[in-house]
Amino acid sequence: MKKIALLLCFAIIFGAQAKIIDKIAIIVNNRAVTYHELEKLYQIRSSELYRKYAGKELAEKLEALKKQVIKDKTDELLLLEKASQEGITISDEMMDNFIKGLMKQNNIENEEQFNNILMQQMGMTLKQFKETQKTQYIARTVIQQFVINKIVIDEAEIRAYYDEHIDDYKTPFTYSIQEIVLYYDSTTKLFVENRAKSIVEELKSGKLDFSTAVSLYSEASSKELNGELKNLKLGDLNKKLEEAALKLKVGEVAMVELPDSIHIVKLIERNEPKPLPFEKVRDKIEDKLRQPLIQDRIDKFMEELRSIYYVRIDVKPEELK
Length: 321
Hints:
This protein is 56% helix and 14% strand. The chain is α+β, with helices and mostly antiparallel strands.
């Protein structure tokens, strides 16, 4: 999708800005792009290359970009023409809701503020921005409807991939513990160690319930959760504490000393990875198998449009400045 991504993210955005009458550079049926539009797009996209490259490499990148800009603008016109013939559009209400959503996400209070931000950052008005976003939506819809949706992956192939890569589709390993935390410093370490050992002995003998011990002795914030730390993943805890906890069987207790604290840990749950049901991952696998086919199908689709519509390109790459 990289080529189309460039088309949607760059080529369309700056097309709406050209208002002055200019020489026609590209024609697709009754749609046209001017030299001014192409040069504007080239200047915007080439600025990134100037920041990244120099010398011969820069020159090669710029020459390739000139060809790409012409291709992208031609593709844009082809997609818009196809959309027009198929009746694909977007309502003003949908666009207004989209703009309101963007404003809310970015804490923009009103359209005037949004307009000022767009002028500063993109050099376009809110009205122009709406038009470019509308064009983006239409172009994406054409590609989705006439390319991506038509790529059908055989059900047997999806199932076979699931069976062959079952390890990639498993629930994560998780575990849960209950802890009692006692803090110490250099003057209290011996006292705290002895208290911790005493607590462990009472727990193992059954004289003391772990939850009761948490309420009586734990000094950590986990005390408010009955000392429980649930659904932990590997790496969530201090390495020494994690290793000690995972050596336990469910229900067993261990004492772990860390700098400044002693932890009495009980393993209360251990969840080994299990295969996810096929139905839950089927669509994800289908998308994965579809991805390598998309660009080739897009290229073929665009070639088909070129063969159907009248296309005239009156600009050469070297003319772009």
